[in-house]
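can u do me a favor
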């Protein structure tokens, strides 16, 4: 599989905000990169430019010898099938079941009429079952999405993204609304799946310890520019201060601990649910 190359990628929104300033970045095939940085650094803008949910202002995005920025609408539609996306807000259809939400990951492939009548090929249904088993949701196949916990909803989001058999995975704050323990489980699952399926991935993540633990490379973005790019063990307190400004990392550590204590109960419930699902 190819590597992903961003060449002088820039995005200026109509409001005048320069969200990305000539970002150049190469992600070799099969690499899982964590993109960290303070709020407003341009992390979401960067990954949304890759599948052109946000139109770049200038620059190139090369994938498999195509420039994604230059694709026409037909080319872009085909390209998007190869790019999976997992969102923070899970973006599930609440009134549909877990299975239906996962199958909706095939919408780029089945015809409009097939999808409208919710008729999917048996091979797709088999594949959805396998994925739901892999993410630990076998017992929830027929449950409506709005009956699930946050962690379970994100597992559905992961299964749905993989349903289209992507080569490239874009993940935007997958754990932002989850408690710390569930966050770790979800992050571990995403990274394991990337390795199993040899996916190239960019994962936006606020949570620096998670990025450190699971990614093989960490890229730090600040005010639309790359200011750190190294292995996780290079992410010293000094580097973190550069990325996040004058933040005191001791204090940030204390806050993370408090969050863990406050969410402790929630994490336990999630764990029991997941144990029940297996
Ligand atoms: N649709 C938009 N229109 C105008 N400005 C935008 C838009 N989306 C983002 N911005 C601005 O672009 C900059 C980068 O935003 P972006 O959402 O990419 O940051 P981020 O690193 O993902 O932040 P967070 O960690 O809070 O999600 C910010 O200044 C933001 O206000
Ligand atoms: Mg964001």
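np, heres the sequence
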């Amino acid at each position: 599989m190819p590597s992903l190359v961003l060449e002088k990628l820039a995005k200026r929104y109509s409001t005048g905000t320069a969200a990305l300033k000539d970002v150049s970045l190469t992600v070799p095939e099969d690499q899982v990169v964590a993109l960290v940085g303070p709020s407003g650094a341009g992390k979401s803008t960067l990954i949304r430019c890759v599948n052109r949910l946000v139109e770049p202002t200038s620059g190139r995005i090369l994938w498999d010898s195509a420039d994604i920025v230059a694709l026409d609408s037909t080319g872009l539609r085909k390209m998007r099938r190869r790019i999976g996306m997992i969102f923070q807000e899970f973006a599930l259809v609440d009134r549909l079941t877990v299975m239906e939400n996962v199958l909706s990951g095939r919408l780029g492939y089945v015809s409009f009429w097939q999808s409208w009548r919710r008729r999917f090929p048996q091979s797709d249904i088999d594949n959805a079952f396998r994925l739901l088993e892999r993410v630990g949701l076998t017992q929830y196949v027929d449950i409506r999405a709005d009956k699930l916990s946050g962690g379970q909803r994100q597992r559905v989001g992961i299964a749905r993204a993989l349903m289209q058999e992507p080569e490239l995975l874009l993940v935007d704050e997958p754990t932002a609304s989850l408690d710390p323990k569930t966050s770790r489980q979800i992050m571990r699952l995403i990274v394991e799946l990337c390795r199993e399926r040899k996916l190239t991935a960019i994962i936006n993540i606020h949570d620096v310890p998670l990025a450190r633990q699971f990614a093989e490379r960490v890229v730090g973005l600040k005010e639309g520019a790359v200011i750190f790019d190294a292995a996780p063990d290079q992410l010293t307190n000094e580097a973190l201060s550069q990325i996040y400004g004058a933040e005191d990392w001791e204090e940030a550590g204390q806050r993370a601990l408090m969050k863990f204590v406050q969410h402790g109960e929630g994490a336990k419930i999630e764990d029991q649910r997941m144990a029940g699902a297996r």
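The chain has two domains: 27-54+65-82+168-278, 89-165. hope that helps!!
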